Amino acid sequence: MNPALAIHWPMVAVLVRRAMNEILRVPGAAIPGVLAPTIFFLGLTAVFGELTELGGFGTEDYQSFIIGVSLLQGSGFTGAATGVNLARDIEAGWFDRLLASPAPRPVILAGTVLSAALRALIPAAVLLTVGFAIGVSWPGFDGLALAIIGVMGLATAAACWGCALALRFRTQSAAPLMQAGMFVLVLCTTSYAPREHLQGWLHTVATINPVTQVLEMVRQGFLGTVTWHETWPGLVTIVALVAVLAAFALRGIRRMAD
Amino acid sequence: MAGLVANARVVASLGARSVRQTFRRPQLAAPIVVFPSLLLAVQTGGAGGAVNLPQFPEVNGFLDFMLAGAMIQSCLLAGNSGGIALAVDLEMGFTDRLFAAPISRYAIVLGRLAGTAALGAISAVYYVVIGLVFGVTYEEGVGGVVLMVLWVTLAAVAFGSIAAAIALRAGRASVVQGMFPMIFVILFLSTAFFPAELMQEPAATVAEYNPLSFVVAGVRDPVVSVVTGEGALKAFASIVGFAALGLGLSALAMRRRLRLG
Question: What ipTM score was computed for the predicted complex, to two decimals?
Answer without folding.
Answer: 0.78
